[in-house]
Design a protein that fits this description.
By secondary structure, this protein is α/β, with parallel strands linked by helices. The protein is built from 19 helices and 16 strands. The strands form 4 sheets. It has an 8-stranded mixed β-sheet with strand order 11-10-12-13-9-14-15-16, with helices on both faces. Strands 1-2-4-3 form a 4-stranded antiparallel β-sheet, with helices on one face. The termini are far apart. Residues 1-47, 310-342 are annotated as: Disordered.
Length: 593
């Protein structure tokens, strides 16, 4: 009985300890010393200690659990196992790559078919299912039909499941800020208060209208494709000019931009154009008779290219090694030219070039003369009298190089009579059914540089205006195979006669010029934004009613100028014809003041 009571009392004390673990596990803070427990009560408490969650094993007098150590030599097997697993996974991915691509492609095709089936109206699903089943039945009946369809399905799945290139990352922080500024600057021009869902609004999202964009290595914008609302008046030149001016100012004024308006799709593309090459010198161009290369332009403007030599080495030319070494030092490449076609069937047989001093108008005239001499005769009037055309004096095909008032008037008067004689000879030959005489078929070029100065001198002296003597060659030069080329300073363009303005339908503007001046001369605005600083010979050209082209005139300096490099001097001298072998009576005598 006593043993039973003792066991029952111990079990009841254990139950009580398990019900109140905190009281049995946490020591009392009120007492500073604890009495040792009795031997009878220590055993149940030790058995009930595992249910205590407030203390650790050391609190109840048990030794700590052993800790698993994976350092040193014990970690090597795990490392080798991890490397082996990675190698096995890579090998399996390489082996199973076609199967993975096919499975991915089949999922893409199945998802596309499911989507199309869901988008199909309910009344069309029955006929569509019948047509698909009929096609499958016909393919099953054809010889090798199931095999061919399976191969086609695998090919389509492989193409749909191919690994595509990752999407290009978005712009940097600076690029995002640039695009946001451009977007905010366009809001006043593309926004409307009546638009319920405006594409442009202050504080809006720029990624919505800007479909694509590119930046260079310096973080500057090189290309931008944007959308604009349909109510924008893109058919008005003033509205487009305002938008172009904003984009030009926000993207940087030191570069030249090309704006392409797609009025049908309401898209505007801004692209930065590369600089045209200035290393192309005067040379023999591969052209047909009646074609004159004014210069070179962008590849997107014309469909024709010409092989040219670019970059003549001055050191090779100074060695005096001749033509072959100079040609070897240059590189040959195909460039798009601006070709001016003249002749009886030309719609623009006469040309007018305008520019500021030093812009390259004289270089353009010299280039035209060097291309015209192999096939025709030339008359040169140097209004400035600076001797820029002295290299042509006494050459074969050069009828006269005039700079004095008396010689200019005599030469131009002879040119008018020569034009009438050619008209009569050609008319007489046509009446008898004969071709025109050879001297009529040979072109006659009348080149005037700075005619307003000669007109001013003639007016001061009470003589006839030299520009009035150009009326006959300008009006009837097309039928008489006579071409007139006039170069004038841009500020003195008002001094040109009405006949010169009306009959010169081929126009060239060189050097820095405002948008209004360029539009007034060419009759149409240029497709690019003008830059404040351009090299000599850089400008725009328009032939008749055609488009406006960027133009870079080939370098054709005066070979007698001390500032001309040796390579360019030799290039020009190679193009000059030999001395005139004709008798003086057959030519117009060149007179100088």
């Amino acid at each position: 009985m006593s043993s039973c009571s003792a066991s029952s009392s111990s079990s009841s004390s254990a139950k009580t300890a398990s019900r109140h673990p905190t009281a049995s596990c946490a020591p009392s803070s009120a007492s500073t010393s604890r009495a040792p427990p009795s031997p009878r009560a220590s055993r149940p408490v030790a058995q009930a200690s595992p249910v205590c969650w407030a203390g650790s094993r050391s609190d109840v007098g048990l030794p700590p659990l052993p800790r698993l150590r994976l350092g040193g030599a014990g970690r090597a097997p795990f490392r080798r196992g991890r490397e082996f697993a990675r190698t096995a996974a890579d090998s399996a991915a390489d082996v199973l790559h076609p199967l993975l691509a096919l499975s991915r492609g089949l999922r893409v095709l199945a998802a596309g078919a499911r989507r199309r089936w869901g988008e199909l109206p309910g009344e069309q699903r029955g006929p569509a299912f019948f047509v698909a089943a009929a096609c499958l039945f016909v393919v099953f009946l054809l010889p090798y039909g199931p095999l061919a369809s399976a191969i086609g399905l695998l090919g389509a799945a492989g193409w749909a499941g191919r690994v595509r290139a990752p999407a290009s990352p978005g712009p940097s922080a600076d690029g995002t800020e640039r695009l946001r500024l451009i977007y905010e600057a366009l809001v006043p021009y593309f926004a409307a208060a009546e638009d319920p869902d405006p594409l442009y609004c202050h504080g809006g999202e720029w990624s919505r209208p800007f479909e694509s964009f590119d930046f260079d290595e310096d973080g500057r914008l090189t290309r931008l494709l944007l959308r604009y609302p349909a109510y924008f008046t893109d058919g008005e030149a003033e509205s487009r000019a305002r938008v172009e001016q904003v984009l030009y100012a926000k993207s940087g004024r030191d570069r030249e931009y090309l704006f392409t308006w797609d009025e049908e799709a309401n898209r505007l593309t801004l692209a930065v154009l590369p600089a045209l090459s200035t290393a192309i010198c005067a040379q023999r161009f591969v052209t047909a008779p009646g074609e004159t290369v004014l210069g070179f332009t962008d590849a997107s403007s014309v469909r024709r290219t010409l092989p040219v030599l670019e970059g003549v080495d001055d050191e090779t030319a100074e060695d005096g090694s001749g033509t072959d070494d100079a040609d070897d030092a240059a590189t040959t490449r195909d460039v798009p030219p601006v070709v001016w076609r003249t002749g009886p069937r030309s719609t623009e047989p006469h040309l007018l070039a305008l520019g500021r001093p030093g812009s390259g108008t004289t270089t353009l005239l010299r280039s035209i003369l060097l291309q015209a001499l192999p096939h025709g005769d030339v008359l040169v009037v140097d209004g400035s009298g600076s001797g820029e055309y002295a290299c042509l004096g006494g050459r074969a095909g050069v009828l006269a190089v005039e700079c004095g008032l008396a010689g200019v008037l005599a030469t131009l008067e002879w040119a008018g009579h020569e034009t009438e004689r050619r008209l009569l000879a050609a008319n007489r030959a046509r009446q008898f059914g004969h071709p025109p005489p050879e001297d009529v078929q040979r072109p006659l070029w009348i080149v005037l540089d700075w005619p307003s100065f000669i007109s001013h001198v003639a007016a001061a002296d009470g003589r006839t205006d030299p520009q009035e003597l150009l009326q006959v060659p300008l009006r009837h030069g097309r039928a008489a195979n006579v071409r007139v080329v006039v170069a004038e300073q841009l500020d003195a363009a008002e001094g040109l006669s009405e006949a010169v303005r009306f009959h010169t339908r081929a126009r060239v503007v060189l050097g820095p010029a405002s948008l209004e001046q360029t539009t007034a001369v060419l009759g149409a605005p240029p497709p690019t934004t003008p830059v404040p600083e351009v090299p000599a010979g850089r400008g725009y050209a328009r032939l008749g009613a055609g488009p406006v082209h960027r133009l870079q005139v080939p370098a054709t300096p005066d070979p007698y100028d001390d500032a001309t490099s040796e390579g360019q001097r030799r290039a020009v001298l190679r193009l000059l014809p030999g001395p005139d072998a004709g008798s003086p009576g057959e030519r117009v005598v060149a007179t100088r003041k």
